[in-house]
Methyltransferase type 11 domain-containing protein (Cyclotella cryptica), 419 residues
Amino acid sequence: MSFMQGFIFLSTLSATSRLGVRAFAAVAEPQTCTTKATGGAGVHVPIGKDGEGEYTASTKGCFDVIDTATPLVLNEIEKQKLRPFGVGSAAYHIADYGTADAGTSLGLLSQMIQAVRDRSEDDDKEVVLHYEDQLTNEWQSVFNHALGLKSVSDAYGKLIPHPYALKNVFIEACGVGFHNQCYPSNSIDFGVSFTAMHWLSRFPSSLKGTEYMHAARCDESPHPEKEQAASDWVAILKARAKELAPGGKFVCVNFCKDSNGYFLGQTDVGASMWDSFQSSWDKLKEQGLIDEEERLGVSFPNYYRRKEEFMDAFEDDEISAQLKVVSIEERVVRCPYRELYTSGKSNKTPREYAEWFTPTTKTWSHSTFKSALRSERNEEEKEKIMSQFWENYMSLVEKNPEVHGMDYVHAYIVVEKVE
């Protein structure tokens, strides 16, 4: 796929602020298959209407994941040598890769800005926030959140501050895709990414015709997904190595399959989310809504790497010459929905809990399940089937709500560009 020679330039100005906000999104020609040039655009399709911020509203666990990473990020800023005035941009540049609708990282980015200003002893230091995601992302939601036009709260009802309120903050967006170089060489001071880089740049789809659905459920990782994930991770690191300024940092918090064999939604607590998915999907065939090919047609285009798979890429000569691993560790963050329900703090009935919890699993999986349906089905028919699938899941959760949740299992990786 080739890119058109040019960029869309969008300019938005807050009615209450003097600062301009620019968004750059690469324009791609129509395509019939996904390629790395689009950063995996179409591999994951956002749900909801752009501008409504449904991802943030339904994905409260990501706030806890980012809170867990916050000390790591702030500690690296504290140790980082800031570029002197006149060397590159006088502003401090932060990139949020795979930002989705930008809501879940607002609090962290606000803290990062304050930390940079404290470090530089300059309360007015300019900071540029570069929001990155795929071409088909919810860009209107990104600006609604980043500019404070739509308020955001976490699972506990706490209002999250937005960075634009701190002034001298410039906000930009890029739709090239994180598998590619997104920014000029030596331009980014600090990059972060949360729960994003498990998405692959292509569709291996090797699990179609099986009941596994996801590579993590297999005893041995299927080669097409494993090889694509390895290739993608190398590409991701090479791109970040170019973009980071010397001494720049990159904190990547990415889904993994940990040393205990735990992964998203399948840990030592509660029922397996994936078993629940399978049961709810299989029931569609029992209900006469899908056939056997569709039942076995689900193959998630993402991959939860193991710790050693993350580290293998640093054996690459090009990467090791530019990047070094400061630290890597595995952590489990419990599902806040289930924790609030089992503690009695949610005050919800079993059905209310099912309706409250289920959307956090839907935001990222709906499009993959839907893609398993026959292409000759029209959109209305597909959405009716999908509505029944989610009803099947909610009914399952309602029967025994205390065992249903989605624990997060991540590798927390800190990388530095060699000076």
